[in-house]
Amino acid sequence: MLDTASLIKILAQPQKIVITTHHKPDGDAMGSSLGLYNYLIQQGHHVKVVTPTDYPDFLAWLPGNGEVIIYTENVEQSAGLIADADLIFCLDFNALNRINEMGELVAESTAVKVMIDHHLEPQDFDDYRYWDINACATAQLIYTFITEELDNAKLINKDVATCLYTGIMTDSKSFSLPNTTSDVHRIIAGLMDAGAVNWHIYDQVYNNSSENRLRFLGICLSEKLEVLHDFNTAIITANKEDLHKYEVITGDTEGIVNYALSVTGIKLAAFIVERPDKVKLSLRSKGEFPANDICKKYFNGGGHRNAAGGIYEGTLEQAVNQFKSILPEYKKLLIQ
Length: 336
Fold this sequence. Notes:
Diaminopimelate Epimerase, Chain A, domain 1, inorganic pyrophosphatase (n-terminal core), globular, six-stranded parallel sheet, about 325 residues
């Protein structure tokens, strides 16, 4: 493992750098990636952000977004950049299977690999690791990486601050989760002082829905919500026909699971959606309930204690039945 002094020495000279993040990037993934991008370009590095897949349109306004390369749309170019890189920053993921086909390319690359992440159980593919499971967002870690590890707070400009604020805001559910500590609020204050406009960022992310997205949400809440009172659990489902009817695109399903969790008394919520090749599950929970344990044990996934995801190789109905069948195992935790 490289130490911080060695990494600083490498970054003292212009490098060819690739920044990547997990597939279907969310606000934290793109906020941390573009925040780091806007920091590094100030030092003369040659930097490209390469995402494994597309990401929500409501993140396309972020500073630097025009320079992002989507791997699935630019395979040859992406592969060349990864092969030619001096450094690869791996943000908001801790296992190479989280970047799909790009994982093999990153593994084969001779570049120095830097992991900055806050998920459990990191895989050993990196040369330098800045990792803290207690951080509320990877964007928080990018901030402390720049200001404390690299001692370069002066380069937190408006573009960097805007991206990092977005990442922290989205991954903390607008600063509402338990890991939104007083330190996080001090970081947010610093980002606002550097130029992040809080109300504008919120408006771009949360008040930017298409008509189809709102109508799809309406159907999910009015027709697809099931509340299991005996287990303090709520489930929302969506099938392929629903996705087609409302022309659902990347990002349109984000946050729907939180509506199920908002029902009074609910401790565990699931959004289970039928994709063309598999069924995907997003779980959210309150308090000490381990949503990530369910995903890891039964749905080939994982994540944080209160926010996790997984997949099921079968039909939507089978996935729902599988989820319901394991609830008795957790009943004591769910009803206490």
